[in-house]
Amino acid sequence: MNTAIHNGWRASEDPRKFLDLRRSFPNTIPRERILLGSHVRRATMVISSSKKANLSASRKQRIQLQSNREKELTFSEFLKHPSGMEAVINAKALQSYQLVDDDDNTYRCTLPTIQLMSFEVSPVLLLRVIPTQDDCTVELLSCKFEGSELLENQSEMFSAVMTNCMTWNMEDPEPFLEVDVSLKVTLEISTRPFTMLPVSAVEAPGNLVMQTLVDTLVPLMLQQLLKDYDEWIQKQQQNFLS
User: Fold this and answer.
1) CA 187/CA 147 separation, integer angstroms
2) What is the pLDDT, as a whole number, of residue 182?
3) C-alpha R_g of the chain
């Protein structure tokens, strides 16, 4: 058998021994380079960058009501009056409102126009008021922007759920009205650089802003509601005297 030495390696002319060498040292076997087609790379990189942040805030607060033993002037009777419904939806802070469904007290409420960048929009809320003899609940059914087409489309990027549960006790030595407000917002994150951040980086400051907003608005709402109730009582008493 003829053998030769080349570069320190002994090579055999017997092909069977060469195959044995390939089996013993598999890493020496020539391999074809595997190329991934561009279509494969694109397919593996199609990953949705959309994220959703869940924001929430709540506040419960109690305020003392005017002591009044007359049944006709209780807070329950106040809510049966149109003035009571206007007070509950805070009509004085609205640009306009209209009753959409008389059966379930659903109102379309338009807030004053606000300036966002170079656009003017009006937030529009759909509220449902559910009064009973012992409590009253206000539910936010929808929230959207009207005015700028660009910002109107952004209404599809978020959803909001709000409930304001009001309870009262007129029999207590110190009559009171208590509100329990809960606000939840789901926000779609679809623009840079926010899509590159973890959701918690959006939720943490977002929750702080939401809580600050609720902590500011709830006391103002209660003060206005109490003022409207006191004015209604005075008008009713004047009507009784006249």
Assistant:
1) 21
2) 96
3) 35
> Residues 214, 215, 217, 218: is their CA dihedral positive or negative?
positive
The answer to whether 75 and 168 have CB atoms below 8 angstroms apart is yes
Q: What pLDDT is recorded for position 116?
A: 60
DSSP state letter for 13: S
Supply the pLDDT for residue 120. 74
Rounded Cα distance between 64 and 172, Å, is 10
Q: Give the DSSP letter of residue 157.
A: G
Query: Helix H segments across the chain?
Result: 15-24, 38-45, 75-80, 82-88, 149-154, 199-241
Two tokens, residue 103: 């059966």
Contact at 8 Å (CB) between 3 and 12?
yes
> What token pair was written down for 57?
């805030």
Residue 193 · residue 49 · CB < 8 Å? no
Locus of tokens 């469904």:
101
The residues facing 96 across adjacent strands are 110
- pLDDT at position 165, please? 96
Residue 158: strand, helix, or coil: strand
Q: How far is the C-alpha of 112 from the C-alpha of 95, rounded, in Å?
A: 5
Identify the helix (H) or strand (E) that includes residue 179.
strand 176-189
pTM for this predicted structure: 0.71
Q: Give the residues of the chain that fall short of pLDDT 70.
A: 1-50, 68-72, 115-119, 148-155, 191, 242
Task: At 92, list the tokens.
Answer: 């004085």
The pLDDT score that the predictor gives to residue 206 is 86
